[in-house]
Amino acid sequence: MSFRYNLIQKWTKKVYRKFNPIPGSPWTKGAVKDICAINLVPPDTLKIFFRDCIKRLEKLKGGDIGDYLEFGVFNGSSIGSAYMTAKYMNQSINFFGFDSFDGLPDGTDEEHDILQKGFYRCPFEKTKECLGRRGVNPDDITWVMGVYSESLTDEAIETHGIGNIGIVFVDCDTYSSSKEVLNFLAPLITSPAIICFDDWRLYDMDIKGTGEYRSFNEFMEKYTHIKAKRIRSYNRKSESFLLLPEVTPSH
């Protein structure tokens, strides 16, 4: 199963986006007056989306919908919105934030001209400050810090008790990083879960066949016991799926 575009779909999307381009991210790197004030997606938009995700999973899994995992935290605007939504809905969810807090790594050849190393760097202490200003206690979140090639390990799963996956928010932009995330998640997806790709269409990376579009399609083709259904996402550049594993994979 995959969600790859055929030639007609690619051509149609290219023509449409020529006149209706996908909005770019509002910030990349460099000095800013207040990094905490940057909202890559409006918080209210995300809160509505996360509310719908929680309701969808409650219907499928009951009261315990599973953990929230975010890959690519930046200043905490997304994980903060999810946290506040869960709190409002009286949902007891474990939150996990995965980030090096050193910005993006190098991208692929298709990405290096638009996603440069160091984009979205926000030091961890600053991220905690930003979360506090949003009404979020950063100590309520389990932080897994480091580059993904070193931090996404079986040891991390065991150490932090990561098991029941509910909502996954992938905002690490590049093909290489999102691929590592998906390979890490594969054995953990044993019940319905929702995965959100924040930059699926950013800079037309889906049409170019790279980024999160490429990594997810490779993931779906490799892990055939997992089926996916598109669900309504929160803006034009993102894509979200309901993941439905048919069987529990053997380890």
TrEMBL record:
InterPro entries assigned to the protein according to its UniProt record, in alphabetical order: SAM-dependent_MTases_sf (IPR029063), TylF_MeTrfase (IPR008884)
Superkingdom of source: Bacteria
Protein name, UniProt field: Macrocin O-methyltransferase
